[in-house]
């Protein structure tokens, strides 16, 4: 396997993409995903946004504000979390309350784009990009609730869902590595840390140069190498734990499985014995009927034996 040329995205958003000089990379990714041109105004501070010694762990997030004052939260999660959906809900709710003052009216509530890049199986679904929005439908006529014309002008929105948080989930492991459009090119990079020469998605050409591993020097290169090492160790630890867990479960279940196998074998043997006894009984009755001169048809009806079986008895 060829050595990777580009920095992993979770490292990049923690270290590099918060720098104004690299906003074009992040803007490109967001524009391809959200399907409108995104201009980042600033990177905001958040709990997971801080530069700490916990970089080796598996949660990374970046909080940005675009030129429309919308909040964009990007979270990268490497390890499985069963309550991840709940965390998504909590994170966007927390952002809204943190970015409104007590004296502000509700129109000042920020719109949140919650972008979640996960490297584990989240929920059940074969797609690799999922979008969640809030809509209201009529209970009786299934009609979609719309904004009034006044509301559209006041809030610069087209639909009710435009006023609520939008969720995006990218399940990288579901991606088949075939880039069919420019968003797929980004997802290919998210999964493989590789940018192909033919890729033309917004931001990727800039990322191809700015996120090269050989651009790192000194302490930054050392930190990245340690990060990769920690991730490999962590992955090996998880794989080992899963393997050990499976082996332990197999050992615990082996007596039960052996007993179930023994019971099935005994049931099969008993069934075969019962069938053999029933067959012998039918043959005995058929022989008796043959001696009495009964017809083959009568014997077949009485014993359940086939014509060929009875004819062989009569030879």
Structure write-up:
- The protein has 315 residues and is α/β, with parallel strands linked by helices.
- The chain has 2 domains: 207 residues, no CATH class; 71 residues.
- Helix content is 47%, strand content 12%.
- The chain contains 9 helices and 6 strands, in the order H-H-E-E-E-H-E-E-H-E-H-H-H-H-H.
- It has a 6-stranded mixed β-sheet with strand order 1-2-3-4-6-5, with helices on both faces.
- Helix 2 runs antiparallel to helix 6 and helix 7 packs across helix 8.
- The longest helix has 74 residues.
- The protein is elongated and about 105 Å long.
- The relative contact order is 0.11.
Blueprint of the fold:
Layout lengths: L8 H7 L7 H12 L5 E5 L14 E8 L4 E7 L6 H15 L13 E7 L10 E4 L16 H7 L10 E6 L10 H11 L11 H7 L7 H74 L4 H8 L3 H7 L2
Parallel strand pairs: 3-4, 4-6
Antiparallel strand pairs: 1-2, 2-3, 5-6
Helix pairs in contact: 2-6, 7-8
Which tags fit this structure?
single chain; 315 residues; 2 domains; six-stranded mixed sheet; 12% strand
Short structural description:
The protein has 315 residues and is of the alpha/beta class. The chain has nine helices and six strands, in the order ααβββαββαβααααα. The protein is elongated, with a radius of gyration of 33 Å.
How many helices in DSSP terms? 9
* Topology pattern, helix = H, strand = E: HHEEEHEEHEHHHHH
Rounded to the nearest angstrom, the distance between the terminal CA atoms is: 74 Å
- Major sheet, described briefly? 6 strands, mixed
- Beta strands, count: 6
Helix content: 40-55%
Give the percentage of residues in beta strands: 5-15%
* Total domains: 2
Unreliable spans are 50-57
Structural class: alpha/beta
Strand order of the largest sheet: 1-2-3-4-6-5
Shape: elongated
Mean pLDDT: 84
- CA gyration radius, whole angstroms: 33 Å
């Amino acid at each position: 396997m060829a050595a990777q040329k580009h920095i992993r995205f979770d490292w990049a958003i923690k270290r590099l993409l918060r720098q104004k000089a690299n906003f074009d990379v992040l803007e490109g990714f967001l524009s391809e995903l959200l399907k409108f041109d995104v201009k980042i105004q600033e990177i905001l501070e958040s709990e997971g946004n801080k530069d700490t010694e916990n970089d080796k762990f598996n949660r990374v997030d970046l909080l940005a504000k675009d030129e429309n004052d919308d909040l964009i939260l990007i979270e990268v999660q490497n390890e499985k979390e069963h309550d991840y959906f709940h965390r998504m809900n909590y994170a966007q709710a927390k952002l809204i309350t943190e970015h409104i003052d007590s004296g502000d009216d509700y129109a000042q509530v920020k719109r949140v784009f919650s972008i979640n890049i996960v490297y584990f199986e989240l929920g059940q679904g074969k797609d690799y990009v999922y979008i969640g929005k809030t809509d209201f439908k009529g209970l009786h006529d299934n009609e979609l609730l719309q904004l009034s014309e006044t509301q559209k002008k006041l809030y610069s929105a087209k639909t009710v869902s435009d006023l609520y948080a939008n969720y995006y989930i990218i399940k990288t492991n579901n991606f088949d590595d075939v880039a069919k459009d420019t968003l797929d090119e980004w997802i290919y990079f998210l999964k493989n840390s590789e940018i192909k020469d033919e890729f033309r998605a917004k931001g990727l050409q800039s990322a191809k140069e700015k996120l090269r591993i050989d651009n790192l020097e000194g302490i930054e290169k050392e930190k990245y190498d340690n990060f990769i090492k920690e991730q490999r160790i962590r992955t090996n630890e998880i794989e080992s734990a899963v393997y050990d867990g499976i082996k332990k479960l197999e050992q615990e279940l082996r007596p039960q499985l052996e007993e179930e196998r023994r019971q099935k074998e005994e049931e099969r043997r008993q069934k075969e014995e019962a069938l053999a006894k029933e067959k012998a009984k039918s043959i005995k009755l058929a022989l008796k009927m043959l001696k009495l001169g009964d017809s083959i048809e009568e014997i077949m009806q009485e014993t359940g034996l086939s014509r060929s079986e009875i004819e062989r008895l009569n030879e």
